[in-house]
Every structure is written in structure tokens, then in C-alpha cells.
Amino acid sequence: MDNYLDYYKGRRVMITGGLGFLGSNLAIRLVELGAKPLLVDAMLPLYGGNLYNIESVKDKVTVNIADIRDAGAIAHLVQGQDVIFHIGNQTSHLDSMTDPLLDADINCRGNLIFLEAVRQHAPSARVVYAGSRAQYGKPVRIPVLETDATYPVDIYGANKHAAEQYHMIYHHAHGLWATSLRISNTYGPRHQMKHARYGILNWFIRLALDARPLTVYGTGQQLRDYNYVDDVTDAFLRAAATDKANGEAYNLGSDQSEQMSFAALIEKVAMLAATGAELVSVPWPDERKAIETGDFVADCDKAKRDLGWHPAVKLDDGLRRTIDFYRQHKEHYW
Amino acid sequence: MDNYLDYYKGRRVMITGGLGFLGSNLAIRLVELGAKPLLVDAMLPLYGGNLYNIESVKDKVTVNIADIRDAGAIAHLVQGQDVIFHIGNQTSHLDSMTDPLLDADINCRGNLIFLEAVRQHAPSARVVYAGSRAQYGKPVRIPVLETDATYPVDIYGANKHAAEQYHMIYHHAHGLWATSLRISNTYGPRHQMKHARYGILNWFIRLALDARPLTVYGTGQQLRDYNYVDDVTDAFLRAAATDKANGEAYNLGSDQSEQMSFAALIEKVAMLAATGAELVSVPWPDERKAIETGDFVADCDKAKRDLGWHPAVKLDDGLRRTIDFYRQHKEHYW
Fold first, then answer.
1. Residue B108 CA: distances (Å) to CA of B49, B69, B111, B258
2. End-to-end alpha carbon distance in chain A
């Protein structure tokens, strides 16, 4: 497990959503490891794609602007890839409720187009799919286990789960190599900071840096777990390099000692940003209340066991790094 | 519960897939109960739609040919409906693997178009969705419970489950009335008999009536449960008339005494048809083996408890009625 980083030297690695938050952080890490990343991104307006994300490695990666729904482009691009980190999807819970057809078009149809391309043109590629805690919706218990039944509360969650199932079906029926990582609240550098429609934790970092009120819905007492982006990219790197991960889904989440209420996390953001921004409680907007899951924390023992993964970056450290990054590169994200 | 049949007198009831197997049997029952069925069907080639299915009630129902993906038509048709039995979907496991995009187009996109129409134009209609045992895929235990995690083995199963989740999401977030019935192997009059791509039990009835070899894959020892169509339509009638069913999913299946291996069931079909057709074991074709779930029987206690439902028609009786029907009306189904 310790030599999983060596796995990437000279590998051909494709990342869908490669110019977004997770994709670009993964690309930077892959360049350090000696891989040759191909970054595929649709650059949809208001999604996470941002060329500045890869500024530091722009000469060491290949960028190809294409949507996963573009069957011809994807069929061409997957050819010859050793590993595909499949991250490019619609990611807003809220948007999935106001425009459910768009969510299904990207996250159902798009994922099938992607998988058909892999089946036909790159059947030996190792695919790691970016799943989501949204697949569970309201958890039947906490911490939630990978084997628990799923009750998504929004169309995004239903479709993210369907798409994970597509991957597992293609694994069992067609022999594709597929792993899913069910990602929780992730924060860090290179997230879009323009709106609050997804990636709410990063949005609060912006509010704090702007010294604006940190408007929390209700009491904010819902328990959550949080991952710094480097820990999530580490899980992707481990997954594709681990034979045992083939056909498996894994929860990602905090160490138990770092699980805390959303309000406590926001207090911490305010404290570390030190701009005088204060937490303000406001009533839940109807459209957010309708898709709220209550307490949610994940049991990550399976990822620890199979992948040797654990979240290494402490919240205080991760938040400080994030705040420093956006202070320094604000003009490219605000 | 006993007066659920009275609920339908004078009701406006729409059935999607209304000219198909379940839809037409339900329509005939609704006419008997004094309802006014509107039968909406896309009449896609090789699907179950058949005008002869409603020959006996053709003057007492309204037929409207339209696809659930036709947003304008569906928005118009749902208006003023008290109850909507939503049955019209892509139903072939096999086809969902050879043409996954079509399955997603009907069963994901189409269901969202349908639900958006209900949300906007018939928000108080009671919707009963035809779910499927395919949602479970390989069951984690048998008999399988509604609360068990789902591991679909084909795209059909993944999308049927996503669509059930859409219904529940629209229930919780938008207040729609929604129930799902997870239907098992159903047989009876008015099923399409032209091919074996879905409704395999009915196909064997045809083979027996044609005195052709009853080719069972492998040993046929997988345990299954079976419902006569009248029992399934009874569950639909009970569901929409039962307040408690709102927001719930229910398994349908055999009484335990009538669960048996697929081979035993086929032996019974051969015996009752009495044409001399014999069971022949052939190797599993790859494309069927890839999506086979092994033993599957459902725990139906929840439907018994909440809906007062139980499968009333014994296998011998149901199979006899089915065989008689097709002998009499063969020209319209062969």
C-alpha cells in the first residue's frame, strides 16, 4: 500500500472534470508523481472548471475541453488510458431539484455514454468514480456504512447512486475495473467561490474572507464530517492502485475526533479567517429544508482497511491552508 | 380496507402503459368498479401495448397514444386525474444492457418528465408507480425486505430504482402522493407473447402452447416467486385507496407455499398445457448469465399489513386461466 504513489510514474491518467476542484488538485499531485494527466472538462458555466486551477502545471498536462455527453470525443479520449478518474458530473443538489432533467442528462445519460466509451475503447482502464454522501440521503443510522440502504433526498443523490450502480453493473457484466468513492463535504484550494449552489463549506470561507455575515440555516447543529481536498485526492490515488478496490464502494469522511456540527465548523472558519465575520442564524429556505438530511457522518473503516487511507490533514491546518490560498489567489476565484 | 373497491366509483384514473399487460388488466377492473380510465400508451414496437387487450371495455375507456417523454402531452393528460397508475416504462432487462441509453431515456428522463407534469398540473393526484424486483438485483438475503440495500445487476434495475427514488423525493420535497409496488414475476392474460426479451414466464406459456421445447438455462433451480396478474392489479387498487401507503414502497410476491424453482414452475406449465412440450436444459447465454440474480423471493408482510393485500390466485388456477385465455385469443398475441 505504501508504494501506491509509485504506481503513477509514467502512467496515462485521464481525469473528467479535470479543471474543477478535485480534478485539478488530483492533476497537480499526478504531475508530481510523474504521471501524464489528460484533463477533460466541459467548462460549463457556473461549474467548477477554471483554467487557473492548473496554472502551476499547465505545461505538464494535456487539456481537452469536452463534455462527457459528447460520445465521439469521449470514445476518442479514453483510448490508451491506464487510469480514469471520473469526476465530471453535475454537482449541485439545489440545481437537481430546479432542473432535474439536466441532472439526469449529465449524471445518468452522461455516465452511460462515458461507460460505453470505456467498455468499447478502454476496457482495461481502471476507473475511479466520484460518488457522494448524497447517495445515502437521510442515513438509516450514523455512522453510515457502505452496505446501508440509500434514501436520497434530492435528484442529485438518486442519480449519483444510479451512476455508481452503472459502474458496478459494467464491472460485473462487462468486466470493467471500477471503484466508487462516496465523498463527503470537501474543502480546500481550487473550489469555485462564485456561488453557494454547491460546496457550501467553501462558500463560508469566502463569506468569512469578505467579512460578511455567516448565515447558517436554523441552529446549524447537524453533525457532519469534512475532508481537506488532499485527503480526498489521496483516496483516489490509492483506489486505482489497489487491486482489492475493484468493484467496491468506499465512504470517505473525517476522523471521529474531527466530526462536528456545521455551526461549530463555521465558528472555526470565522476564528481562523479573523476578519470579524460573525455567525448569524436565519430560517431554513424551503428549497434547502426540503433536501436537508440531518446528522450525517460516515464509517470509513472499509477505506482504512482496504486502501490504507485515513484523513491526514487536521481541520485547523486544512482550513488555514485554504484561507491562505484564497487570500493569495482571490482575483481568480471571486 | 375492505371498501377500497368503492374508492374507484366515478374516479378519474389515468394509466400510463394503459394498453399493456398490467395497464389493460387494471383498466378492465376499473371499468367494473365504475371508474373512468384514461389509458395513455406510447405503443412502442415490441413493447406490451395492444389494442386488443381492451377489446372488452373499449367503449368505456379513453385511449390516448402518447409517450411519457412527451412533456406537452403528459402535462395536459394528468390534469384533473384523481389517481395515476404509472406503469409505462422500458421493461426489458436484456434491452437495458444492449441499449442502456434508451433505458435511461425512458426510465430516468421519462419518469422525471412525468413527475414534473404531476407536480405542476396534478399535485393532488395519487400516483402508484410500478417498481420491480429488479431494483434489488442480487438480494442481500431472502426473503428480501423493502429496507434491504439494492445491488441491481442490470441498467433496467438501476434505473427502475432511481425512478422509484424520484417518486419518493417528489413526495418529500414537493408533497406529491406516491407509492411504489416492487413487482415480481407476473403472468396472466394480455401479456405480449411475441418475444422473450421480457416477461419470461409468459414466453414459456407460449412455448408450451406451441408444443415447442421449454429451454431452461442451466438447471433452472433458482428460487422465484410468481404472481397472477389479478393479484398485482389488486395491489394497485389497494395502494391508491390507502392513506398509509403514501410515501411507501411494497414488495409483491408469492405466498411462501407457492414459491418454487423456475424449473418446477416450467414443469407445471408443461403439465397444464398438456401439449407434450418438454423441458430442455441449455447452457446460459453470456448476456443472460451476466444479469442473473440467483435465488429471489420477497417478504410481502408489509403489503399484507398496510394494504391488506395477499396473493389470492393459486398458481394452478392462474396458469389454467392464462392458458385458456391464450388458447382462445391466440390470433391477437402470437
1. 20, 10, 5, 34
2. 39
| Grid coordinates given for A275 | 476578519
Give the torsion through C-alpha atoms of A144, A145, A147, A153, to 10 deg: 30
What are the pLDDT digits (tens) for B167-178? 999 999 999 999
Query: What whole-number distance in Å separates Cα of residue B217 and Cα of residue B262?
Result: 10
Q: Which of B38, B35, B12 is nearest to B23 (CA)?
A: B38
Question: For chain A, which domains are there?
Answer: 2-190+227-254+299-313 (3.40.50.720)
d(CA A242, CA A308): 10
How many beta carbons lie within 10 A of that of residue B229, not counting itself? 24
DSSP assignment of A65-93, as one string?
E--TT-HHHHHHHTTT-SEEEE--S---H
SS3 assignment, position B35: coil
For B286-304, what is each residue's pLDDT tens digit? 988 988 899 999 999 999 9
C-alpha cell at A297: 457522518
Q: Which residue of A has its CA nearest to B69?
A: A101
Can you name the residues that pair with A224 across neighbouring β-strands?
A260
Q: Whole-angstrom Cα distance, residue A111 to residue A167?
A: 9
Residue in A101, A153, A162 closest to B112 by CB: A101
What is the pLDDT at residue A2? 62
The amino acid occupying position A59 is D
Contact B153, B138 (CB under 8 A): yes
Strands B12-16 and B83-86: parallel
Report residue A302: phi and psi, to 5°: -65, -40
Please list every residue in chain A whose beta carbon sits closer than 8 Å to the beta carbon of residue B290: 172-174
Of the residues B155, B171, B180, the best mutation for testing chain A's interface (the one with the most A CB atoms within 10 Å of its CB) is: B155
Is B50 strand, coil or helix?
coil
The pTM assigned to this predicted structure is 0.97
Q: What are phi and psi of A249, to 5 degrees?
A: -115, 140
Distance CA B4, CA B24 (A): 20
Cα separation, A267 vs A283, whole angstroms: 18
Strand, coil or helix: what is A109?
helix
Phi-psi label, residue B85: left if phi above 0, alpha if psi -120 to 50, beta otherwise: beta
* Average pLDDT value for residue range B104-116: 98
| Cα gap B291→B308, rounded to integer Å | 33
Residue B56's contacts (CB-CB under 8 Å, 6 or more residues apart) are B28
Distance between CA atoms of B242 and B262, rounded to whole angstroms? 33
Instruction: Report whether pLDDT(B1) > 60.
Output: no
Q: Which of B115, B169, B170, B172 to mutate to test the interface with A (most CBs of A within 10 A)?
A: B169
pLDDT along chain A (334 residues), means of 10: 88 98 98 96 94 98 98 98 97 95 98 98 98 96 97 98 98 98 97 92 96 94 95 98 98 93 95 95 91 93 98 97 97 96
Supply the DSSP symbol for A285. P
- Angstrom CA distances, A63 to A51, A71, B52, stand at 9, 18, 57
Q: Which three cell numbers stand for residue B121?
A: 398540473
What 3-state DSSP class applies to A156?
Answer: helix
**Residues in chain A whose Cβ is within 8 Å of chain B:** 97, 100-101, 104-105, 108-109, 112-113, 115-116, 140, 147-155, 157-159, 161-162, 165-166, 168-169, 172-174, 290-291
Quick: pLDDT tens for A74-95.
999 999 999 999 999 999 999 9
